[in-house]
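Structure request: Phosphatidylinositol transfer protein N-terminal domain-containing protein, Ambrosia artemisiifolia.
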Amino acid sequence: MPLSLEEYQVAQMYMVMKMQQQTSSSTEGVDVLVNRNFEDTLFGKGRYTSKVYRLQSKAPTWLSTFAPTHALTMHEEAWNAYPKCKTVIKCPYFTSFTLTIETIHRADNGHSENVHGLNKQQLAAREVEIIDIASTSDGYWSYVIGSNTVDFSKFQSATTGRGPLLQGWQDRCKPVMTAYKLVTVDAPYWGFGSRLEQALIAVFLCP
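Returned structure:
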């Protein structure tokens, strides 16, 4: 992202609040069960939250054919010690499903190696996906989370003067930062596990 770490932190908090407002209605939305400070040896000091997401209207058609309307009621636990964050999402209906997102934010251009400190076995199993916000290609992630509605190769911010983001912008832009996300999915459901994975990543991974 063409942002400093401090700017991205503000933008991230704004987008999380905006998403919660946009998905809230009389029948759906986000319930915050716990919101408190925490401190441990892994993250240091930060903010712990426990939330329940009721997102029935976002359930894909194929899921609604055999699952009840509450199938997309999700429980989220999050440990936010920015620039390190961890989120664990579970679904009471699909009891064996777990989505874990571990994020490390760095003020670099995305070329850092193994920022999550994975061992050899984990590195061998890892699949790396680079999401370029300025890309217009129709790849896997554009399918999962949707395509850009803004052409960043032509856009320039009137406030900061940053942009347009032309090819190779990551190596020229100042400031620049990267969100390194380690996404671990356990969806042991034969026949639709990967589709369930895609549906829930589309809901929770974008912010």
